Amino acid sequence: MFRDKMRDAALLLTSCVVVFLLLSFSRAARQGQDIRCGACRALVDEMEWAISQVDPKKMIQTGSFRINPDGSQSIREIPLARSEGNLLELMESVCERMEDYGERTDPSTNRKSYIRVKSRTGEAMDFSEATLDSRVTSSLKFACETIAEHHEDEIIEFFAHETDNVKDKLCSKRTDLCDHALNIPHDEL
Q: Which of 44, 23, 49 lies closest to 177 in space, CA to CA?
């Protein structure tokens, strides 16, 4: 009888530990997804802002500079802001700006999102909804660098062709970094 009670207690304790571990792993996986999604969305915001800062009148010639048999050249002009060279240059520094983001928790879903807490122009910003934490910003920066490295071609492709709604198309549909992103409001930073 004593052995049965001990066995039942051990079984109950083991079950509780397993449930606790499963919940912990599930929460950690969701936090990892939130940070990757947030990094992707912040990367898109930062790239769009950096592209908007380039003079739209500046053009760059691309194509072959070889002369064709008929004497013509296959050269075309594209906006500098959306050229592959400029986009690659912008991508080298975009993740440094993740330090300008803070973490916000949605009270209804308990999901994390990341919002800009430092103004680009020096204006005062409302920090009431965001938590500033060096661990969060370093995780966000690492996630951004990983995304930029693994999805460089997709990022260049989207920004070179001025695709509308890049956040959803890149972060949700193409890379699957944000499975829940279609429910996130589209805010302009």
A: 44
